[in-house]
Specification:
single chain, mainly alpha, globular
Length: 354
């Protein structure tokens, strides 16, 4: 969905129905597929925390999971930008790069108001903050027991208020903790596709109400003054129930996601998320300079999608094999520990009976 959003947001010619305000509103809602990625992270982390030996090992595993692909993609972007002097690198100086690159390698832009070299990496700032928060909470609970909840809950509330797009991490954790368990909500969760469409439309409407400011720069405090807060609550519940239905394998969407092609895309999804903007940028630049897209008229977006997708998949496949598997395995051997197993999104027993 994020790939489709980058095609839709490319500024290229497209078919008349898609170029209308309504058409763009609907197709650009695919931007919020990132939040569904957060759902997966929250779901996986709930189990990973239980299996990790201690908070430090947990953070090590998360760093090994996130940083290699991020670093490689950022360094490629910097090298290409300096070589071509395009895409924001026209007036870039070495002094500024020496300040920007390290903070980007640490995934700080996103939570912090720092220029982001990688356009898709803002979400990794949310991810890493979430991992660190989980590790700190774990350590505090081990040391001081349940008394720490009086500190943890208010801090979590403040973070969610300032970074509302990260709320879907909580949705994934709720599903991992087997919410909901009974009643009408379970029956609603049997239809994940319309629920996820409802979530996307809610989030897209919040963006429209926030314009000209981007949703990522807004807070729940601002949302409380209009329809954005009710829409956010509906969207959050819809996303959580829809994700519950996916985990349980319900509906057409649950069946589709269990197919081998979609399992493969799931395997390379992290690398695909970080590499496809880089590949798309190169493909678009080449096609524009060759005059292909200008000559394509209303077919330009469709052509861009068809041409950019295969190399994006190839780059992601190579990245997953080399960086996510081989390099990560080497790093873990160096640190003398094995990672907690990451289970597939299999049905939870109570869901099957439900």
């Amino acid at each position: 969905m994020v790939f489709i959003f980058h095609v839709v947001n490319s500024g290229l010619g497209t078919f008349a129905p898609l170029s209308t305000p309504t058409g763009f509103f609907l197709t650009s809602a695919s931007e919020y597929g990132v939040e569904l990625f957060f759902c997966i992270s929250g779901y996986v982390i709930a189990g990973t925390l239980r299996r990790a030996r201690n908070p430090l090992v947990f953070i090590e595993d998360r760093a090994i999971r996130v940083f290699p692909v991020l670093w490689a993609s950022i360094l490629v972007i910097v090298a290409a930008g300096l070589t071509t002097r395009t895409h924001g690198f026209e007036g870039e100086t070495w002094g500024r790069l020496l300040m920007e690159v390290p903070v980007n390698l640490l995934a700080l832009p996103g939570l912090l108001p720092i220029d982001n070299i990688h356009p898709a990496a803002w979400s990794l700032s949310y991810e890493m903050a979430f991992y660190l928060f989980c590790a700190v909470c774990w350590d505090m609970c081990r040391r001081f027991g349940s008394r720490t909840y009086w500190l943890i809950v208010p801090v979590a509330a403040v973070l969610l208020a300032h970074y509302p797009r990260g709320a879907l991490l909580l949705a994934g954790m709720l599903v991992a903790e087997e919410w909901p368990r009974t009643g009408a909500l379970l029956r609603v969760a049997r239809h994940p596709l319309p629920l996820l469409v409802l979530f996307l439309l809610c989030w897209r409407t919040i963006q429209s109400l926030s314009a000209p400011e981007h949703i990522i720069a807004t807070t729940v405090v601002e949302w409380a003054g209009d329809w954005r807060l009710p829409l956010a609550l509906v969207g959050f519940v819809a996303a959580a129930l829809g994700f519950h239905g996916i985990v349980a394998g319900h509906g057409v969407l649950g069946t589709l996601l269990r197919s081998r092609p979609l399992h493969y895309l799931g395997t390379i999804s992290y690398s695909f998320y970080l590499w496809h903007p880089v590949v798309m940028s190169g493909v678009k630049t080449f096609l524009l300079r060759a005059g292909v897209l200008q000559a394509s008229g209303m077919w330009a977006q469709a052509l861009f999608l068809i041409i950019a997708l295969p190399p994006s998949l190839v780059a992601s496949h190579a990245s997953q094999r080399v960086l996510e598997r081989r390099f990560a395995a080497w790093m873990r051997r160096r640190l003398h520990h094995t990672p907690p197993l990451q289970p597939p999104l299999a049905p939870i027993p109570h869901m099957e009976s439900a």
